[in-house]
């Protein structure tokens, strides 16, 4: 399932944004949504963040939302070398983002299952800083898939 | 876009977030530090719902009671609530989302994704 969602064009290895709102916007860019829909998804993401940051700590955030304006489940992975102030739970800058968004209803509840997979990967990759060193998008995807399978 | 449609979309998104937040699968993930995110979401919902004309809100709530949601995207000409292919006359119209519309089959408010 994760393999189907992880696409090279939805991996950003060098995020430019420095703050919460602009990084969410930058992470939405690869979806190529029309401006009107992009704005509505951004609003939904901000609403979700307003009830508690999805910056789970140790440099990782999993911003996620459902939105009526989406027609599929989308995953975008972004890495920031300098880190972003995302009001994470531990107060530290976030270096790795997994943005997941989906329509309100999705067959097979891919959204919640994928959220679980990402949370699981996140717990594994915080053990080293390997994810900060990878220079190639394909390698980055392979690394994440390897981490998913690792016990 | 129709301004009422925009509020209905926001309301639909919040309702979907509440549904997730209430599900055991989501709670298990522990993605929020807050002890009661549902209360915060319900407050957001109230604020959003208060911007709607009473008749629209009443209809939305009625639909939500019946189908679990009050608004659904139309994808590829198909209403994702009742899975009926909408008439070509509607699908090909250039002013989609410019006015508030409902599915002619199930009556749910619709948002055209394309």
UniProtKB/TrEMBL annotation, chain A:
One Gene Ontology molecular-function label: protein kinase activator activity
UniProt domain PTS EIIA type-2: residue ranges: 4-147
Domain of life: Bacteria
InterPro entries for the chain: PTrfase/Anion_transptr, PTS_EIIA_type-2_dom, PTS_SugarTrans_NitroReg
A Pfam cross-reference name: PTS_EIIA_2
Entry keyword Ribonucleoprotein: no
Keywords, alphabetical: Sugar transport, Transport
Gene3D superfamilies: Mannitol-specific EII, Chain A
Family matches, as SUPFAM superfamilies: Phoshotransferase/anion transport protein (SSF55804)
PANTHER family: NITROGEN REGULATORY PROTEIN, PTS SYSTEM FRUCTOSE-LIKE EIIA COMPONENT-RELATED
Protein name per Swiss-Prot or TrEMBL: PTS sugar transporter subunit IIA
Record organism: candidate division WOR-3 bacterium
TrEMBL record, chain B:
Upper classification of the organism: Bacteria, Bacteria division WOR-3
Organism: candidate division WOR-3 bacterium
Gene3D superfamilies xrefs: 1.10.287.1490
Protein name (Swiss-Prot/TrEMBL): C4-type zinc ribbon domain-containing protein
């Amino acid at each position: 399932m994760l393999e189907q969602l992880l696409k090279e064009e939805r991996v950003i290895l060098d995020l430019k944004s420095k703050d919460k709102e602009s990084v969410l916007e930058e992470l939405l860019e690869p979806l190529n949504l029309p401006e009107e829909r992009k704005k509505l998804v951004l609003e939904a993401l901000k609403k979700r963040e307003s009830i508690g940051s999805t910056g789970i700590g140790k440099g990782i955030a999993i911003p996620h939302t459902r939105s009526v304006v989406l027609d599929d489940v989308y995953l975008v992975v972004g890495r920031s070398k300098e880190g972003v102030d995302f009001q994470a739970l531990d107060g530290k800058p976030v270096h790795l983002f997994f943005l997941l968004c989906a329509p309100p209803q999705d067959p097979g509840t891919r959204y919640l299952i994928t959220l679980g997979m990402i949370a699981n990967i996140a717990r594994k990759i915080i053990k080293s800083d390997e994810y900060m060193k990878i220079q190639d998008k394909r390698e980055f995807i392979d690394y994440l898939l390897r981490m998913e399978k690792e016990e | 876009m129709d301004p009422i449609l925009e509020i209905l979309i926001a309301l639909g998104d919040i309702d979907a977030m509440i549904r997730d937040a209430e599900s055991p699968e989501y709670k298990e993930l522990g993605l929020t530090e807050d002890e009661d995110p549902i209360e915060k979401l319900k407050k957001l919902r109230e604020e959003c719902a208060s911007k709607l004309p009473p008749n629209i809100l009443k209809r939305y709530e009625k639909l939500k009671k019946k189908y679990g949601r009050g608004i659904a995207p139309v994808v590829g000409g198909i209403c994702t609530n009742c899975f009926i292919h909408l008439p070509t006359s509607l699908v090909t119209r250039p002013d989609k989302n410019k006015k508030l519309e409902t599915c002619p089959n199930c009556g749910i408010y619709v948002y055209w994704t394309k």
